[in-house]
Design goal:
- The protein is α/β, with parallel strands linked by helices.
- The chain contains 10 helices and 9 strands.
- It folds into 2 domains: 1-34 and 80-121 and 172-255, Rossmann fold (3-Layer(aba) Sandwich); 40-78 and 123-166, SIR2/SIRT2 'Small Domain' (2-Layer Sandwich).
- 37% of the residues lie in helices and 15% in strands.
- The protein has a 6-stranded parallel beta sheet, with helices on both faces.
């Protein structure tokens, strides 16, 4: 099927869907200058995730863990949301989509205007491992340190380890967050996957729920293969996420 025909089919699916959920991965932010994870120049091509982003580092080497995510935070604040994020925010405002579920931690969906975004893998806030207090992401700029909030248990400072508020390798997704995402996918008639290879468990179970629970459809917009290609009603791999969404948006405006 020619790419233009695929665009037309996606437009038709969006227009006929009474409930649409967006599922995004790192590929939606590459147009902002943020690298993805698994491509030839991706983040994990240059770093071993088990050495820089594993839960064991919280106790074995918290400074290195904090430093790695501090570098990521600096990268995020020197870039900004791209047109793909803004188009999705506009679609939500126009009632074309109901929910955005993202694996990303860059906060770009919210900055672009999307509301009630479900962040599967956390965000760039700083969290105390002991008392679970959250500190703003700007705390990364001060360098590694200990929690200086008053302890709720004893009359002194908490002194807990500060860590990124993200799901690290070796950790499970927060149950509450996963349930919210699962509900959004089970209620949807259409799931549009953007910029994700759908290779990370259990996040990759979510789009399947749109098909199994509601006999819904899946659209995949991603350069390269994904683990859910066999379930897709439409797969656009010829264009990057930004160009694909721009063309879909233009076609929606004409109808």
């Amino acid at each position: 099927m020619q790419t233009i025909k695929k665009i037309e089919k996606v437009v038709e699916l969006i227009q006929h869907s009474r409930s649409t959920v967006i599922f995004t991965g790192a590929g939606v932010s590459t147009a902002s200058g943020i690298p993805d994870f698994r491509s030839s120049d991706g983040l994990w091509h240059n770093h071993d995730p088990l050495k820089v982003s594993h839960v064991k580092l919280v106790y074995e080497d918290p400074k290195s863990l904090f430093s790695f995510y501090a570098d990521r935070y600096r990268e995020f604040i020197t870039h900004e949301p791209n047109g793909a994020h803004r188009i999705l925010a506009k679609w939500q405002q126009d009632g074309l989509i109901n929910k955005v579920v993202t694996q990303n931690i860059d906060d770009y969906h919210q900055q672009a205007g999307s509301k009630n975004v479900i962040e599967l893998h956390g965000n760039m806030e700083v969290r105390c491992q002991h008392c679970n207090r959250l500190l703003p992401a700007s705390r990364f700029l001060k360098g590694y340190g200990r929690c200086q909030q008053p302890s709720l248990e004893i009359d002194e400072m908490c002194n807990g380890i500060l860590r990124p508020n993200v799901v690290l390798f070796g950790e499970e997704l927060p149950q509450k967050t996963f349930k919210q995402a699962s509900k959004a996918h089970m209620e949807a008639e259409l799931c549009i996957i953007i910029g994700s290879s759908c290779s990370i468990y259990p996040a990759n179970l979510l789009p399947r729920q749109t098909v199994s629970s509601n006999n819904g459809k899946i659209v995949i917009i991603n350069k390269g293969e994904t683990e859910l290609d066999h379930l897709a009603s439409v797969k656009i791999s010829e264009w990057e996420a930004l160009l694909s969404l721009q063309e879909i948006d233009r076609s929606l405006q004409k109808t």
